[in-house]
Amino acid sequence: MDTLARTKVKDLLKMPAGADVLAKGWVRTKRGNKQIKFIALNDGSTINNIQVVADMSVFDEELMKRITTGASLKVTGKLVESVGSGQAVEIQASGIEVYGECDPMRYPLQKKDTSLEYLRSVAHMRLRTNTFGAVLRIRHAMAFAIHKFFNDKGFVYLNTPLITESDAEGAGDMFQVTTMNLENVPKHNGKVDFSKDFFGKKTSLTVSGQLEGELGATAVGEIYTFGPTFRAENSNTPRHLAEFWMIEPEMAFYELEDNMVLAEEFVKYLVQYALDNCMDDLQFLNDKYDDGLIERLRSVLGIAFQRVTYTEAVDILEAAVKNGRQFEYSVHWGTDFQSEHERYLVEEHFRKPVILIDFPKDIKAFYMKQNEDGRTVRGMDVLFPKIGEIIGGSEREASLEKLEQRIEELGMSRKNLEWYIDTRRFGTVPHSGFGLGFERLLLFVTGMANIRDVIPFPRTPKNAEF
Ligand code: 4AD
Ligand code: MG
Predict the structure, then answer these.
(1) Together in a domain, 59 and 156
(2) Which long-range contacts link 177-182 to residues 24+ away (Cβ below 8 Å)?
(3) Residue 37 confidence (pLDDT) above 70
(4) What's the gap in Å between 365 CA and the centre of ligand 1?
(5) What's residue 112's pLDDT?
(6) In the predicted model, is pLDDT for residue 111 greater than 70?
(7) Total structural domains in the chain?
(8) Which of 135, 203, 366, 404 would you call most buried, defined as having the most Cβ atoms within 10 angstroms of its Cβ?
(9) pTM of this prediction exceeds 0.90
(10) Whose CA is nearest to atom 9 of ligand 1?
């Protein structure tokens, strides 16, 4: 046991000079001359380093040789006012112990910048960079703020299953879960016999906790889920992951309007929380990758999001095309918007976040409330600058009859859905909810360009390393 308690770098940097301190961390850089060395030490608690000053009349050359970028140290000394600029205090070292050396010939992170793409192949080193330190701290702060937001509103955190037999989004692309021997799959009448599988039925990893969430909301009123979600869609884009995290609030007695108000309040709260609590990290990312980041974050706070129906949006896009704006994908009533269309609406036309509502029923999931017009549903997508869709949600179809009719129309298996349909059979209520893609939010908040760089261990097609 150390006799002196360790202080984290984040706290050291805020302390007044004078105290004897103990710091532990990894060497970022070492410089100096024969008389004096300056070691920048970081322990991951902050983007900032504490400077350790080593007087070479106290320490020997042999020890200093072992102190290279990436090595781990334990440093005791006095916290003194810093003479150099850039920091208020530094440690005048009296003792330095090397926990682990870091061979400079083999360490893949030297001072020169390494590309984000390269870093993805060196998982352990990647997380130790300034960039990922910042991303991970912001990711944590956002997760905490999400729980705080809902807790303060009296929502109940509901844990929905990751293994499920239902396909909530009806989109198909699910990962199957099985313990069957794929070399020798049990068959019955030529078909796979899932009764022999672990759960006695065909199961998959969930694409959404919403359906189970609706059971929670129609019991305790307001719930939210926050967990991993899996989609086997083969989308190799900077905005898609095969494993991502989603936050899905679901609220009894909310109509679409209430849902929109909550979604807007929610994302604004999170952006404000980041600005209030993560400024050092945001400033670093702003300076290094995206000099419009902080301004963009502030810009969404002060304004009301633009609400527009799908039909109005199609008119806007068609007018743009008429005026010579080119899109890779064509757009007309009934098509699902591509990210280029969403970004046109947000970045060029309205120049603010957009809440798109009332979609053609054929491009949306079975559970959305049907409008009187018979061809649109009360869906709601929130579109953000640089990202496109960040939230997808809707008011839910509360009528048993209409829900059953839609399930029928789509040819979905009722057998797996009776438990869900029960919510409309017994005391049905108007209710609504939405899903926020956690990594999409983080793309916006960190300004990173690729969704792989806002999750510690990304899973994408042909990539499940570590
Ligand atoms: O729009 P989606 O598919 O909606 C649902 O899953 C609903 N069940 C939500 C609800 O109403 N409770 O997905 C919601 C959000 C998207 O807006 C997007 O931000 C994110 O999840 N998302 C993805 N993020 C990363 N990679 C993917 N492959 C994603 N697919 C969706
Ligand atoms: Mg969606």
Answers:
(1) no
(2) 177/203, 177/204, 177/205, 178/203
(3) yes
(4) 12
(5) 62
(6) no
(7) 2
(8) 135
(9) yes
(10) 435
